[in-house]
Automatic annotation (TrEMBL):
Alphabetical list of PANTHER family matching this protein: NAD DEPENDENT EPIMERASE/DEHYDRATASE (PTHR10366), VPS9 DOMAIN-CONTAINING PROTEIN (PTHR10366:SF812)
Limits of the NAD-dependent epimerase/dehydratase domain: 10-248
Protein name per UniProt: NAD-dependent epimerase/dehydratase family protein
Keywords: Oxidoreductase
Record InterPro entries: Epimerase_deHydtase, NAD(P)-bd_dom_sf, NAD(P)_dehydrat-like
SUPFAM superfamilies: NAD(P)-binding Rossmann-fold domains
Spans traversing the lipid bilayer: none
Source lineage: Bacteria, Pseudomonadati, Pseudomonadota, Gammaproteobacteria, Vibrionales
GO terms assigned for molecular function: oxidoreductase activity, acting on the CH-OH group of donors, NAD or NADP as acceptor
Pfam families membership: Epimerase
Length: 353
């Protein structure tokens, strides 16, 4: 097990986010002082869940007002910190201007945080939350690589502003991080590349795409059926653990593909059937690809016919051996992730029988 140095504070950007919430929880429970970078420290409702954790944890939380797109905005928050966890990034699939809403904030935000790390002498390591989206764009891409398995050595080369703009923004932001890291010797960069993150949030009313997916599996949206779309899935709690290990494991280096299971949307839904299938309209049928192609873009404008053609009917495989071997990760079973998440939706009254 990695040894956590509790002496120096750490910075978490986007501290109220889905992954960041669990990371902050683990840090506070370990007795660390967390500098939580947030947009508005006076928004008590948004900070309520982190404050609840901090009340009973041995660690301390301090809030700092920051703006991802303001140069120098992180100077005060980063002061004295040994580790910077940069988790803040927009995860929105439906955008009208991908350049302005996704690409520019992702690159500029990464640049602002990492250039501030250069200017802060206490910083020794930066852990960046990237994504498997920086490794591949569509499932069909995997048919072009050796053994058809996604690994840390691969970069997404098929996404652009007009096709999978979110994936393109994650790819370009991570490339920018490596470019900045290679130009200095003060700190090391470790990058976390999670697949689709699922599981209960610290904040049950979060707006991440993951919450939309689990809700649609139980609110009747998908009762007619679900597309056979292959995905990697990882529990949000395991992603937080990966960040922690990446920060405090001395020999951690490079990128880490963080994914618990090679699965698919129908398989994810199947995990819910034994416990919830009799009370909620969980999808049981797999939709034929031509139907998804025909109606998919009408149901969800973020899904194009090109997306459907290049992903539905294709499996997904990722190699997580580096994360297990070097970061010591033990992944939760898919059924635990899905059932815990669904139960949280019920308890938060976001799903009705």
């Amino acid at each position: 097990m990695y040894r956590i140095d509790r002496k120096l504070p750490v910075l978490v950007t986007g501290a109220t986010g889905y992954v960041a919430g669990w990371l902050v929880k683990r840090l506070l429970e370990s007795g660390v002082t967390v500098h939580a970078a947030v947009r508005d420290p006076s928004d008590q409702e948004k900070l309520r869940y982190l404050n609840q954790i901090a009340k009973s944890a041995p660690g301390t939380i301090r809030y700092f007002q920051t703006d991802l797109l303001d140069e120098g905005s992180y100077a005060q928050a980063m002061e004295g910190c040994s580790i910077v966890f940069h988790t803040a990034s927009p995860f929105r699939l439906q955008v009208s201007d991908p350049q302005r809403e996704l690409l520019e904030p992702a690159i500029q935000g990464t640049r602002n945080v990492l250039m501030q790390a250069n200017a802060t002498s206490s910083v020794r390591r930066v852990v960046l939350t990237s994504s498997c989206a920086a490794i591949y764009g569509d499932n069909a891409d995997l048919t072009q690589i050796e053994h058809g398995i996604a690994t840390e050595a691969i970069w997404n080369q098929s996404s652009s502003l007009s096709h999978n703009p979110y994936s393109f923004s994650k790819t370009e932001a991570e490339k920018e991080a490596w470019r900045i890291a290679e130009q200095q010797q003060q700190w090391t960069l470790v990058v976390i590349n999670p697949s689709l993150v699922m599981g209960p949030g610290i904040h049950p009313y979060a707006t991440s795409e993951s919450f939309h997916i689990i809700r649609q599996m139980g609110d009747g949206t998908m009762k007619a059926g679900i597309p056979d779309w292959g995905v990697g899935v990882v529990d949000v709690r395991d992603v937080a653990e990966a960040h922690l290990s990446a920060a405090y494991t001395t020999h951690a280096r490079g990128r880490y593909l963080i994914s618990g299971y090679n699965t698919s949307f129908p398989e994810m839904a199947r995990q819910l059937l034994p416990k919830y299938g009799s009370q909620y309209p969980i999808p049981k049928r797999v939709l034929p690809k031509f139907l998804v192609w025909l109606f998919g873009p009408m149901v969800n404008s973020a899904t194009t016919r090109k997306n459907i053609a290049l992903n539905v009917g294709y499996g997904w495989k990722g190699d997580n051996t580096k994360s297990i071997g070097e970061l010591g990760l033990k992944y939760r079973p898919l059924s635990v992730t899905m059932n815990d998440f669904f139960q949280q939706m019920i308890e938060a009254r976001l799903l009705h029988r």
